[in-house]
Amino acid sequence: MLVVLTVSAVSCTDDDDNGGVLDNNNSAYDLTVDNADFTILNAALLRTGLDATLDQAGGTYTVFAPTDTAFQTFLSANGFASIDDVPVLVLRNTLRNHVLSSVARSTDLTDGYVKTIATNDDGDTLDLYVDLTAGVVLNGVAEVTMADVTVDNGVVHVVDEVIALPTVVTLAAANPSFSNLVTAVDQQGLVATLSDDTATFTVFAPTNDAFQALIDESTTDGLNDISDVLALSNLTDVLTYHVVSGASVRAENIVDGANVDPIGPGTFSITGTVITDAQARDTNIVVTNVTAINGVVHAIDNVLLP
Prior knowledge:
FAS1 domain, 14 strands, alpha+beta
């Protein structure tokens, strides 16, 4: 079952250029000044102007704070010699991808997506997937190693990896409910295409339950389990039938009755939250607007067929 994380807290407005003098308080920013494990994070905050944001008195932030070791791994993996080599706009948005605008202590977290204060080119806030299966893992890469460090303007959780800006693949791969879809996309060699952060996609993503619904739909189609689906000769066509390229179409912008032309062969229509595919089968959109740096994901409860 897909769950969208909701945190009940008073939110604050992000204002990186507040023009004020930094307060001498026990803020999330001050934690980076006083802790030798956060020297690179501190330098990154100062370089991007986010020091002022995380020093705001009365703020209500959750910060997932990468250690120096985490940053060193990130810099090495991306070919940067130091934090000063990372383009400022990229660094700033990456840091914002570690911040929630409300307080979420470890006891407030549940499995599901939560909005960070990072944004895509359209200004939509990016999602972060929280997985509590074994500890707290964020977007499938960063584990919380120390939780619930209380500061005056929220809470800080220490993480062991920098959380890169997520693509549509990142957000699907981090969520166990999409494991069958991720296996299929990987098997068909589509990961690189959908991970392109210079492209824009709208993905109608079948959950594991959706794949099971397809398997259960007929007793005569030869689909008895997921391995049969993965063996379909037209699997690439089926998968790309779920992807629209060149646009990130949010739920509120879907025109009722729209005829959609995906990457794969054929078209489908959307009326309300119901998709009618080329085989005249109806599928429901069950979760909307999971937002990545290169598009948006809407979860659906069956597999569309071209």
